[in-house]
Specification:
Number of strands: 9
Radius of gyration: 22 Å
Order of helices and strands: EHEHHEEHHEHHEEEHHEH
Shape: elongated
Helix content: 40-55%
Length: 293
């Protein structure tokens, strides 16, 4: 798509990924302002090693860590919050490090990590680079090419993150948001959620588009108008769509209970990714696709 005033070159959006040792958990969610600034300076030096032109862009970050579902949401809200707050930072743009840390234990804006999503093995420090569009585009291309393969953070960066957040690190590396999407897709595949990923990917990368999950025995979903619509079936309606020809009442009852549990699992995952979920009661004599349109 051609870049224009209505379609500006997006900032370079990435994250410092902190992989925790098995069984460990961070003891602090956020860094104080001075420590956040120190972490930002170390990250800037690391990123320049992957693309020297990155030194000419403003590096903006928050000294806090999040679960992947908090970053992977339509519109990239954490990154957009960084970009909006950075616009009010003093000084001339180009090569600045703008780090937001905690003051009296509180982070600015909407940066407070969710307690609901604590405890996962991968924590992410979001960061964005902003500046000249041509430089952004070059740095973005370099990061997409380099970070997944050799994006390890420097030893000083990893040590500061480990000590500052009070965690035990297995690895510290940089990822673009596309890298993070690819990793998450693989994790969801291993967790038996592969059929859902195309719909979730549409919500993240093309939120104005539509997508269906229409792959029995999975629930029927339609992503449209920025929300996921889930078809609700009566027991008879479910049998007509998913269990034609089966007349074992006990097996049918167990199958319907599993189906409803799967609906709840998928709805919870979509909501964790910031995607609104609505339900449509599907009448057995109508095409359920029409009910979700």
């Amino acid at each position: 798509m051609t870049q224009s005033a209505l379609n500006p070159t997006p900032p370079v959006r990435a994250a410092l990924a902190l992989e925790l040792r098995p069984g460990s958990e961070a003891t602090r969610d956020a860094l104080a302002q001075n420590d956040a600034g120190e972490l930002g300076a170390l990250i800037a030096a690391d990123l320049a090693g992957f693309a020297a032109e990155a030194m000419g862009l403003d590096l903006v970050l928050v000294g806090a860590h999040y679960d992947p579902v908090e970053l992977l949401r339509p519109g990239w809200p954490l990154h957009r919050e960084l970009e909006q707050l950075s616009a009010r930072a003093p000084g001339e743009s180009g090569g600045r490090v703008i780090a937001f840390g905690a003051h009296q234990g509180r982070l600015p804006g909407a940066f407070a990590p969710s307690s609901e999503h604590r405890g996962g093995p991968l924590r992410l420090v979001p960061l964005t680079l902003i500046g000249d569009p041509a430089v952004q585009a070059g740095v973005d291309a370099a990061f997409e090419s380099e970070l997944m393969e050799r994006g390890m953070a420097g030893a000083a960066t990893a040590l500061l993150a480990q000590d500052g957040f009070g965690l035990q690190l297995e690895h510290a590396r940089y990822l673009t948001l596309h890298d993070l999407c690819a990793m998450t897709a693989l994790q969801y595949e291993h967790a038996g959620l592969k059929p859902l990923w195309p719909l979730l990917e549409t919500a993240l990368l093309a939120p104005a588009d539509e997508a269906w999950l229409d792959a029995p025995p999975e629930p029927l979903l339609h992503y449209v108008d920025g929300e996921a619509r889930i078809a609700l079936f009566s027991p008879d309606g479910w049998r007509n769509r998913y269990a034609i020809g089966d007349d074992d009442e006990a097996r049918l009852e167990r199958g319907f209970a599993r189906f409803e549990a799967r609906q709840r699992q998928i709805a919870a995952l979509l909501q964790a990714h910031g995607i609104p979920v609505t339900y449509a009661h599907c009448r057995s004599r109508l095409d359920p696709h029409d009910e979700l349109a």
